[in-house]
Amino acid sequence: MGGVITKSESPRKGWVPESKLEAKMVEAMQRRALEGTSLKSFNNIILKFPKIDESLRNCKNIFEQFDENANGSIDPEELKHCLQKLEISFSEDEITDLFEACDIRDNMGMKFNEFIVLLCLVYLLKEDPASLHAKSLMGLPNAEATFETLVDAFVFLDKNKDGYVSKNEMVQAINETVCGERSSGRIAMKRFEEMDWDKNGMVTFKEFLFAFTRWIGIDEMEEEEDGEDRV
Ligand SMILES: [Ca+2]
Ligand SMILES: [Ca+2]
Ligand SMILES: [Ca+2]
């Protein structure tokens, strides 16, 4: 598996993926970027926030459905069942990689916001360019429409289509919207820093998604409910 990513040529644009999964994400994103984006400005993204917010919250029932023992988190076994049910045929290794990448609290249990990020990554990785948005890939048409919006937003930000959003690209995206305003650079920096979780100067799609769940407050919603003191 993963044979596709072992290209011998080094990436032209200089950023080396930090994991196999990241490499796959970047590749899928680059492929997707060829189709372009429907967004014209950063404002377009902001305007979509409420709709995305609502739609992601509606994913709560998907989460509950797959949280078989109803303990408020999805464990690796439950995730496996979930992907089977969605007819997603990833290898064991791929599932483990995905789980580890999204289990940011690192406690072998996936909270709602982590699960959303995971599903969205699955959506990106599963997408077959040949079957473009023609049909639901995972049997979750509403969620998928939102995932598509998020992918589209990332493609908009990733100006040079290398699968990452750099600080410059963020500044560029925001400047396109707020022409000539002095504060826009600072806003861009702040947004960028919020997204660049590991502070390595590049934002991956995964980081972007986590930032998104924070911006619309999905992770807070989780913390209020809490109940994860004990394992
Ligand atoms: Ca569970
Ligand atoms: Ca880029
Ligand atoms: Ca980063």
From TrEMBL:
<feature type="domain" description="EF-hand">
    <location>
        <begin position="183"/>
        <end position="218"/>
    </location>
</feature>
<keyword id="KW-0106">Calcium</keyword>
<feature type="domain" description="EF-hand">
    <location>
        <begin position="145"/>
        <end position="180"/>
    </location>
</feature>
<dbReference type="InterPro" id="IPR011992">
    <property type="entry name" value="EF-hand-dom_pair"/>
</dbReference>
<dbReference type="Pfam" id="PF13499">
    <property type="entry name" value="EF-hand_7"/>
</dbReference>
<dbReference type="GO" id="GO:0005509">
    <property type="term" value="F:calcium ion binding"/>
</dbReference>
<protein>
    <recommendedName>
        <fullName>EF-hand domain-containing protein</fullName>
    </recommendedName>
</protein>
<dbReference type="InterPro" id="IPR018247">
    <property type="entry name" value="EF_Hand_1_Ca_BS"/>
</dbReference>
<dbReference type="InterPro" id="IPR002048">
    <property type="entry name" value="EF_hand_dom"/>
</dbReference>
<feature type="domain" description="EF-hand">
    <location>
        <begin position="54"/>
        <end position="89"/>
    </location>
</feature>
<dbReference type="InterPro" id="IPR052591">
    <property type="entry name" value="CML21-like"/>
</dbReference>
